[in-house]
Amino acid sequence: MTQMNPAKIFLAAFLVNNIILMRFIGLCPFFGVSTSLNTSAGMSAAVLFVMLLAAWVSWILYHALLIPLGLVFLRTAVFILVIAALVQFVEMFLKRYIRNLYSAMGIYLPLITTNCAILGVTFLNIDYKFNILQATIFALGTACGFALAIILFAAIRERLEDAPISPAFKGYPIAFIGAALVSLAFMGFTALFGIS
Amino acid sequence: MDWLLIFKSLLALGGLGLILGVILLIASLKLTVKVDEREAQIRSILPGANCGACGYPGCDGYAAAIVAGKAPLNACSVGGPTVASKIGQIMGQEVTATEPQVAVLICRGGKEEAPHRFEYRGAEDCRQAALLLGGPKACIYGCVGLGHCVKVCPVNAIKMGENKLPIIDEKTCIGCGKCVKECPKGTLRLIPRSKLVYLACVSHDRGKAVKDVCKVGCIACSLCVKVCPVGALKMENNLPVMDFSKCIDCGICVHKCPTKSFIDRAPGRPKASINPRCNGCGECVKVCQFKAIEGEPGKQHRVTSEKCIGCGQCVLVCPVKAIDLVGALGHAMKTV
């Protein structure tokens, strides 16, 4: 996987292997937060931020600590611990020094401390044997893919709110059906290329 | 069993946890934001409805704005005077209280009174329906009746009535004005909670144009303006406009209106009663607009209680204070 070029990694993470619609990771925020465009944009920004940080920290920790000590099997516990602490720290830091950024995405930060999408990216970085540059690009692409999926879906759900839908389908049922259809549409990208 | 591996794992994970814990501890000490304690105090006084009527994002935003000196102390219409004076104590300032308000529907044309001119089959949303030729109702001014106000009310004080007009529960309504802002037709408004009488029509048409589309619409006859004893009503653009600072809630306009376009919020009204002190001067007979008082000059007059609406005008003019208003407990708090 080391020979993959950066643009291809980004596109693969963004579209072909979209984390929500193709890998079905991070579905809880996808359904929980996508009720309006504003909240989903805030959530996406927070995910982008945390995902990059988590990718760096976990990659460094894995290669500098876990591999030399032969403790690779501990990665789940270590990553959860480190990412949770990191997000806590970043939240405090933002609250103190960058007030605007904090008020823009502050409330979403605690929500994604150990979100499965974040954790998933850190594992995939290792499974694909990425170097740190590739890991960064992969995290960036995944976060953008997350944003794309959730913002597209929020727009759909805002329209569904006002549509005349049978009461049996109102709310989550129609959202699930909609998500399945969007996911089917994204299946079209699989024929291009991708990371497997 | 590989004891070394277990030991290493414990050490690595435990050590990592310890280091991170210490870092977070130091960070929480160094990076704490000093919150003005007045902000927390004010926040605990505010009602917590997060309705946004003050113009700030929620009660937290309002509390922060007060402490920053950017917001007026009496902007919270939900809390009313009690909250405003408590905030004043914390901030060490005098406050003038805001009059608590209540939202009312100023349209009476339900599906019975105001028929539709076409069948609307679009999204169940007032805003969308109103964009389509002004809505399905024949009266283009009136309430669309698809209940957008029901959805936006933060305290669930509004429900849709059987007549396809929203019903506002005045006890639950906090007067935040959210429904007023959201209504695409402007058929909701805020009135002072203490006021009892308001006009419930928004049609700027007059006469037959209104009659054709609504049984209870104001036809701009301006009778109410003539009968109002205090001149609180004024015709503007074919609608009587109420000056609430002048209105005395007598209710004469409510009973005189030929189309029943006014609404009286009073749960009940008293009746005039004349006692033997009456000297038969006849002042009350002249002032009564409903011919409810009769009597020969020089003798004690009588009130026909079926005709009396309890407006209290006779009480004001009686030179010997021989008239009382009796009955109607709900009205007792209002002095005429």
Distinctive features:
heterodimer, A: 196 residues, mainly alpha, 8 helices, B: 336 residues, alpha+beta, two-stranded antiparallel ribbon, two-stranded antiparallel sheet, 12 helices
Describe the structure.
The complex is a heterodimer of chains A (196) and B (336). Chain A is mainly alpha-helical and 196 residues long. Chain A contains eight helices and no strands. In chain A, helix 3 packs across helix 6 (116-127), helix 3 (37-69) packs antiparallel against helix 7 (132-162) and helix 7 (132-162) packs across helix 8 (172-187). Chain B is 30% helix and 12% strand. Chain B is built from twelve helices and twelve strands. Chain B has helices spanning 3-30, 37-45, 58-67, 80-91, 126-131, 148-152, 178-182, 208-213, 223-227, 252-256, 283-287, 313-317; strands at residues 101-105, 158-160, 166-168, 188-192, 197-199, 233-236, 239-242, 262-264, 271-274, 293-294, 302-303, 323-326. Mean pLDDT of chain B is 84; it is low at 332-336. The interface between A and B is medium-sized, with 20 and 22 residues.
List the SSEs and their pairings.
The complex is a heterodimer of chains A (about 200) and B (about 325).
Chain A: H1 6-16, H2 27-32, H3 37-69, H4 75-97, H5 99-105, H6 116-127, H7 132-162, H8 172-187
Helix pairs in contact in A: 1-7, 3-4, 3-6, 3-7, 4-5, 6-7, 7-8
Chain B: H1 3-30, H2 37-45, H3 58-67, H4 80-91, E1 101-105, H5 126-131, H6 148-152, E2 158-160, E3 166-168, H7 178-182, E4 188-192, E5 197-199, H8 208-213, H9 223-227, E6 233-236, E7 239-242, H10 252-256, E8 262-264, E9 271-274, H11 283-287, E10 293-294, E11 302-303, H12 313-317, E12 323-326
Antiparallel strand pairs in B: 1-4, 2-3, 5-8, 6-7, 9-12, 10-11
Helix pairs in contact in B: 2-3, 2-4
Short description:
Chain A is built from eight helices and no strands. The longest helix of chain A is centred in the N-terminal third of the chain and has 33 residues, at 37-69. In chain A, helix 3 (37-69) packs antiparallel against helix 7 (132-162).
